[in-house]
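Checklist before submission:
- one chain only
- standard amino acids only
- sequence pasted in full

Submission:
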Amino acid sequence: MIEIAGMQMEDLAEVAAIEKSIFSQPWSENGFAASLQSKDTLYLTARLDGKIAGYCGFLQSFDEADITNVAVKESCRRRGVAETMLAELIKRGAARGVTAFTLEVRRSNAGAIALYEKLGFVNCGIRRNFYEKPAEDAVIMWKR
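Returned file contents:
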């Protein structure tokens, strides 16, 4: 069973380790700590067997939220972790007054794009050369 909870300071070492294993330009533990301290953010963790399998979060501005992080540990993929935690993030965001969510995703990440579409996001454009290491365009997606 996937357990979803608000990210806590004691989760940060594990979250940062997952982040570093997945992304070429990872957020640091300090970056996550600073984000957790803002009233305008919401970060969740997903646990399998008591260990963090993934995390996600957003930065809220009025009634919109920019989903800044979505990550699932390689060994935990294809088990519904991302879908479960994103659905909960959207639900909790709506409870905070968010009516529209946005995110960027690598153009080549077909699996993530398909998941976001399943959750109601639509492709609204391209940000040229948004990503580095390797350089790639981002698909801008919105859920309203």
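Reviewer check: The chain has a mean pLDDT of 97.
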